Amino acid sequence: MSGDSPKPSVLDDGEHLNVLGYQDHFNRSMSFWANFALGFTYLSPLVGVYSLFAVALSVGGPPSIFWIFIVGAGQLLVSLVFGEVVSQYPIHGGIYPWARRLWGRRYAWMAAWVYIWAMIVTITAVAEYGSGFLGSLFGIPSTPLSTLLLTVALLLVALLLNFSGTRTMARVAQIGLAAELVGVIGVGLYLLLFQRKQPFSVFFDTMGVQGDGSYLTAFFGAALAGLFLFYGFEACGDVAEEVARPAVRIPRAMMLTIIVGGISALFSFGGYVLAAPDLQAIVSGKETDPIPAILESTLGPVGAKIFLVVAVTAFLSCVLSLQAAASRLLYSFARDGMLPGHRWLSKVTPRTKVPANALIVACTVPVLLALLIFVNEDLLNSVTAFAVLGIYVAFQMVVLAALRQRVRGWRPAGPFSLGRWGMLVNFVALAYGIFAMYLLARPGSSGNVFADWIVLIGLGIVLVTGGLYLFIARPDRKSHAPAGDAIAVAEQIRSRTAAVQTTR
């Protein structure tokens, strides 16, 4: 799967980067499996399942598990589109450079602005959720102050590990991958095989969550069970310039992240449903945090404590992967002169070869957001909901830009190609993305206008502030890096590749 033997039809990494207008400044020490581990620990099925298990069951009942299949299939299509893009453009930053090279500077600025805030908010949310596991591991009572301190501790430890360099980051990501697999597949299989208390037919039982209305409405309401799970695979492309043979390896790593993440989530979610001693209490909303009780009753006190160690490791690795991806996006954005303080943000440490200043920002802003959540705990759900929608919006801006270029005649020139299926896959991926964004942006029905519209309000604030800065400061005019060159670059890559084949 890793494809270690070089193919004569592929440009070497330095030459490929040179065609794109950049020079190597990083150590290409990240292997295929380390790149996959980075994406997987960012996607983190353990974090996703634990965070939304009770919510999904209370809204959609046991059939909400089918959202894992639906969203997994949709995001796999998106990863195929991303795979072709990153195979032609294996450069740092992911969403931002892809949008820039496929469309243009201003379009890319808005995509990156939305994505940066979504990632930073996601870092905050994951650290906040992880603080609960860390507190339980050390027997620290859950209070607003302890949650704040433990959240900051997770953020700072991840920052220190990221400062150590790409190799350390890769090792921690691989440890996190092992922890994730034990925590979701291992525990999930154990629950399925030895602790099953519910029949498999329960996954087709709505258990009355729809009340007197249509179950379809309830099922759509539980979509977040899948939508929150399947992003993070794009992080494989955020560190492209630190991966050996990225044009070949990163598309495979992204697809593998989706497939293994989906299987892991199914085992985990299904195992907890089938092992729940009182499933009706979870579905009715009486039991709002059921997983600790399920683990205590099935694994015993010692087993539950071991699981906490695994969970804390997974959360730390997830925060580390998120910080790494966000810092590379900030670096890529700054390298092109598109942000205030771009010279400071685009500095790379001479010894460890990491964008240290961008890493500091990727840690400091989440700390400030954690302070806001300390003041108002209700903000956590709001910022989490915005993070998911913001990431999907940024994803679909790339998918739309790729489809636009295909209509204009673009044929991706990287070693990973969908060939004649590219247009169809691109179109269906965009249709899926629009459907997903509709599900995420639908206003609630609580009667509280602010609470019902908070996700769209948050996205609106980010879009308006980003738009104002873009059209007042005009950072796009200060940046002279290439943009909108997908067709020209594809032709240049084919020409260079043909020349390489001839000389070999």
Structure description:
This is Amino acid permease. Its main location: membrane. It is a multi-pass membrane protein. With 504 residues, this protein is mostly helical. It has a single domain, classed as Amino acid/polyamine transporter I. It has 21 helices and no strands. Helix 17 crosses helix 19. The two termini are 25 Å apart. The N terminus is likely disordered.
Task: Lay out the secondary structure.
Layout (H helix, E strand, L loop, with lengths): L12 H7 L12 H12 L1 H16 L5 H23 L6 H8 L2 H33 L6 H20 L2 H29 L20 H7 L2 H4 L7 H4 L7 H30 L3 H5 L6 H46 L6 H4 L10 H20 L3 H29 L14 H20 L7 H25 L1 H4 L7 H18 L1
Protein name: Amino acid permease
Organism: Microbacterium rhizosphaerae
Main location: membrane
Keywords summarizing the entry:
mainly alpha, single chain
Structural class: mainly alpha
Low-confidence parts: 1-8
Q: What is the CATH class designation? A: Mainly Alpha
- Specify the biggest β-sheet: none
Write down the secondary-structure element order.
HHHHHHHHHHHHHHHHHHHHH
Q: How many strand segments?
A: 0
Instruction: Give helix % range.
Output: over 70%
End-to-end separation: 25 Å
Approximately what portion of the residues adopt beta-strand conformation? Answer: under 5%
> What number is the mean pLDDT?
86
Pfam family, one: AA_permease_2
Main location: membrane
Membrane topology: Multi-pass membrane protein
Protein name: Amino acid permease
